[in-house]
Amino acid sequence: MRAATQADLPAIQAIYAHAVSTGLASFEEVPPSLDEMRRRYEDVLARGLPYLAAEIGGRVVGYGYCTLYRTRSAYRFALEDSIYVDKDFHGRGIGRAVLERLIARSEELGYRQLIAVIGDSGNASSIGLHARLGFLRVGVLRSSGWKFGRWVDSVLMQRPLGAGDGTPPTG
Known about the structure:
By secondary structure, the chain is α+β, with helices and mostly antiparallel strands.
């Protein structure tokens, strides 16, 4: 696991494009261009947030990053995670490794809550991964998306970071 670089973006864009085109994890319907993925990557880094690449044999096989959960100031201690794994590498623990490192890095940065907004209530692999790493299912936004000719839920999961809400934050 390492910090993602600009050179990783073509592989990251390909992984995400496949997820957008074939799955319900993302509610985007058209895969973003490489330029748009670069803009998003730079936005994450400009905020000092983690953007990671998982690599096997020199090939990027997964990635993940954290963004602000919401932009209003009261949310400033909460992040949202996003994780995607190459279709040929599902079930090998890559998503877990990425999420573990995102959790650790978010704690190091002083954030207090990590939120997952998981597309599709039937997404057992993502829901299970988050649950195994301490996330609790805190809600479902029923039929909040329309993709592939059907209504799709968003599952909300949340995990405290560091002291969570046990003490006031600093900064």
